[in-house]
Design goal:
The protein has 15 helices and 12 strands. By secondary structure, it is an alpha/beta fold. The strands form 3 sheets. The protein has a 6-stranded parallel β-sheet, with helices on both faces. Strands 3-4-5-6 form a 4-stranded parallel β-sheet, with helices on both faces.
């Protein structure tokens, strides 16, 4: 039994409802849908209690999953709760750490620096590495039909949610127009998923852009990224994958004024990107809110294209941080080993 999306469905695991039904971006959207979310939480808790699993394994989406775990633990304390992807207490709401130990038995961490936050409060945790840093063999994919020998690839990540795509694509289209008017040396590859591929493609077709591709196949996306000269990405963990592919990048993001104002009041870090947060320095340029416009994006992009040493310096600094994040085995294997060990304890 699960609550998940298309990836779990591909594995033949049925979901009681799609995770997208309770995934809302921004504080205002959450508030507007609070009763729907609460109803889904209670429905999920009831199903778990009815199913009586040995382990409740929750992944990310803390505002949903941790609320479910807390209620389940209160109703049946014998169900072991393991949560993968710790809430970002190092960014905001540090007080959550003290509460977690009351209902989470084991926390699986993506970043090694997180452990100190949970060790202080005696929350059982294990650093398992980040799945985006796992080495995947993409050799053997024929990309000749996509890559022209005379064009450099620029990978663009407009977001994984429709709300993000709606906000960022208009800006990216203006950047594209500006960039293509100045040079035809680049192939712009938009990385998206199957759900939003048509949306992104139609936006490009509407303006008759040339030298553009929209890719949703994960294997092809990874190989195209590895062959890219530069990347422009929505703020998020995709920056890890980009840096791991040894590609310099620029981070962009926009929220409506109310959400941005609330976040500025709550967060206790200066930067949005994980590399910048860890280093306490802007290793990767960030263009947020009013700075996220076509002129600023082109200015940074052109600067990196005109000065290759900027990209080299960025990657050198990123690689120092990446090396501290990697583990000997794959992240997936380490998580699986922990789950298997805990399951055996029940048998």
């Amino acid at each position: 039994m699960s609550v998940g999306g298309e990836n779990l469905e591909k594995l033949g695991i049925k979901s009681i409802f799609n995770l997208a039904d309770i995934t809302y971006l921004g504080f205002t959207n959450v508030l507007l849908n609070i009763f729907t979310i609460r109803k889904k939480i209670n429905f999920t808790v009831n199903k778990i209690i009815e199913f009586k699993p040995d382990i409740l394994f929750s992944v990310d989406s803390p505002d949903f999953t941790l609320r479910v775990a807390k209620k389940v633990k209160l109703l049946n304390s014998s169900i072991k709760t393991i949560h993968y992807v710790a809430p970002q207490v190092w960014i905001w709401r540090k007080g959550r750490v003290k509460k977690l130990k009351n209902f989470i038995d084991h926390l699986l961490l993506l970043f090694n620096f997180e452990k100190e936050y949970f060790d202080k409060e005696n929350v059982n945790s294990t650093f398992v590495g980040h799945p985006l840093l796992d080495n995947v063999d993409n050799k053997g994919t024929d990309l000749n039909h996509l890559i022209g020998s005379d064009k450099k690839i620029v990978s663009i990540f407009p977001g994984s949610r429709l709300s993000e795509i709606r906000v960022l694509m208009p800006v990216l289209l203006k950047f594209l127009s500006l960039s293509q008017n100045k040079s035809n040396n680049y192939l712009y590859v938009f990385h998206t998923n199957n759900e939003f591929k048509k949306v992104v493609n139609n936006l490009l077709l509407d303006q008759n852009f040339k030298s553009c591709e929209v890719i949703s196949n994960e294997k092809i996306k990874k190989e195209l990224l590895s062959k890219s000269t530069f990347a422009i990405a929505k703020s998020g963990t995709v920056s890890l994958e980009i840096a791991n592919a040894n590609v310099p990048s620029l981070i962009i993001y926009k929220l409506n004024f109310i959400n941005y104002f609330i976040i500025k009041l709550l967060v206790n870090v200066k930067y949005a990107n994980i590399f910048n947060i860890i280093s306490k320095n802007e290793i990767i340029p960030e263009l947020l809110q009013s700075q996220c416009n076509e002129n600023k994006i082109y200015e940074v992009f052109n600067s990196f294209m005109s000065n290759p040493e900027l990209g080299e310096k960025q990657l050198l600094n990123c690689n120092k941080i990446l090396n501290s994040m990697k583990i000997n085995s794959s992240s997936a294997k380490k998580v699986a080993d922990i789950l298997s060990y805990d399951i055996k304890k029940f048998n």
